[in-house]
Amino acid sequence: MTVHLTRRDPSKNLSPFYRMLIVPDLFGHWLLLREWGRNGSGGKVRADVFNSPGDALLALQRLTREKVRRGYARLGAQITDQDPADYADVANDLFQGLE
Predict the structure, then answer these.
(1) What does the DSSP assignment read for 65-91?
(2) What domains sit in the chain, N to C, each tagged with a CATH number?
């Protein structure tokens, strides 16, 4: 599951994004991957580990509500289900540049 949020304020030259993705890891846990930064540039990445997909989903929902209250809006397809076969590609994209 992926959520992509963005906020724009041309008067303040603001253009941040916030993307969250829930993926399984190889050890039976679930990761909430978060990436944020300025649109058009590389962002920062954080991974939070959860024991169940339900716990990860609750955290994703809480963070989404928090960001929307702070002025972020959902971008494009608001929440999308990801084919499990795509998890590795998406995780690689998120962590690219951390090596």
Answers:
(1) HHHHHTT-EEEEEEEEPPPGGGHHHHH
(2) 2-95 (2.20.140.10)
The string of pLDDT tens digits covering residues 5-32 is 988 877 777 788 999 999 999 999 999 9
Residue type, 93: D
Do residues 18 and 67 lie in contact, with contact meaning Cβ atoms separated by under 8 Å?
A: yes
How far apart CA 41 and CA 16 sit, in angstroms, is 10
Q: Whole-model pTM? A: 0.71
What token pair was written down for 74? 């959902």
- Specify whether the CB–CB gap between 56 and 32 falls below 8 A: yes
